[in-house]
Amino acid sequence: MVVWTDFERTAIQDIFSKIDYAVVGQAAFSRCLIVYPWTQRYFGGFGNLYNAAAITSNPRVASHGKVIMEALEKAVKDMNNIKATYAELSALHSEKLQVDPDNFMLLGHCLTIVVASQLSKAFTPEVHAAFQKFLAVVVSSLRKQYY
Amino acid sequence: MSLTEKDKAAVKALWAKVSKAVDTVGGEALGRMLLVYPQTKTYFSHWPDLTPGSEPVMVHGKLILGGVTEAVSKIDNLRGGLLELSELHAFKLRVDPSNFKILAQSLMVVIATMFPKDFTPETHVAFDKFLAAVALGLSEKYR
């Protein structure tokens, strides 16, 4: 079971209370599709993803970014049970969507960059470490059903 | 995934700004790396203080940033231009090359906190490619 310090819990909850899910979700997801273009393979039905400008203005990318943030919020609301919270989503990603699990951290990295840009000095090394730990737990839980 | 002319221009433009903060960016990146990815501390067990902001971290961070600045100046030939640094990392420091990616990520987070408007997705992809090419150049002499 994951052990969270009080600082880590507060830091994670604080970040999620400060960010706008629509803005951050769109920014992180579109950044992932731009910086790691092979991730576009999972979104063939999303329309125009031909270049950075198209991706940034794509409405399906924007709405899906928000969906991702809302799913992350579930983990934030029950940090002691992230594995159980994501059991269904893990099965969905492995069996239906068939996403290579190595891609999860690519999105995680882009989300870190976006949160860092927004929080600036408030994204201290200690807060950064807590966020990284949170993402590692999320990714590990999403990977659970793959084997 | 080689660097296009557009990538090189984006990296140079970003670095022109980042290198002005030479006293802080490197140290911050190194400090974050040691805290966020504690396994990297194994390379610095001889230092008295590994906490972010400490003197050895800031001094060494500035050194590392100088290395990246050198790489930017040699952006047209990273494989050949980084041979000396590669020998240092391969034979003396023996840093596992997987760690180059970790430091690269820490550096990009620091740049995002300090230069959010400049670190656009297009600049990010160019810089990510550049740092991957630097890592490859540093790994050249390993085996």
UniProtKB/TrEMBL annotation, chain A:
Residue ranges occupied by any Globin domain in the UniProt entry: 3-147
Domain of life according to the entry: Eukaryota
Matches recorded under InterPro entries: Globin (IPR000971), Globin-like_sf (IPR009050), Globin/Proto (IPR012292), Hemoglobin_b (IPR002337), Hemoglobin_oxygen_transport (IPR050056)
Gene Ontology, cellular component aspect: blood microparticle; haptoglobin-hemoglobin complex; hemoglobin complex
Entry keywords, A to Z: Heme, Iron, Metal-binding, Oxygen transport, Transport
GO biological process, one term: hydrogen peroxide catabolic process
Coiled-coil blocks: none
GO molecular function terms listed in the Swiss-Prot or TrEMBL record: haptoglobin binding; heme binding; metal ion binding; organic acid binding; oxygen binding; oxygen carrier activity; peroxidase activity
Family: Belongs to the globin family.
Name the record gives this protein: Globin domain-containing protein
Gene name of this polypeptide: HBE1
UniProtKB/TrEMBL annotation, chain B:
Keywords: Heme, Iron, Metal-binding, Oxygen transport, Transport
Keyword Ligase: no
Gene Ontology biological-process entries: hydrogen peroxide catabolic process
Protein family per UniProt: Belongs to the globin family.
GO cellular component: blood microparticle; haptoglobin-hemoglobin complex; hemoglobin complex
SUPFAM superfamilies: Globin-like
Source species of the chain: Astatotilapia calliptera (Eastern happy)
Name of the protein described by the UniProt record: Globin domain-containing protein
Source organism phylogeny: Eukaryota, Metazoa, Chordata, Craniata, Vertebrata
Secreted listed as a keyword: no
Superkingdom of source: Eukaryota
Pfam family membership, one: Globin
PANTHER family for this protein: HEMOGLOBIN FAMILY MEMBER, HEMOGLOBIN SUBUNIT ZETA
Domain Globin span(s) in chain numbering: 2-143
GO molecular-function term, one example from the UniProt record: heme binding
PROSITE patterns, A to Z: GLOBIN
Gene3D superfamilies from the UniProt entry: Globins
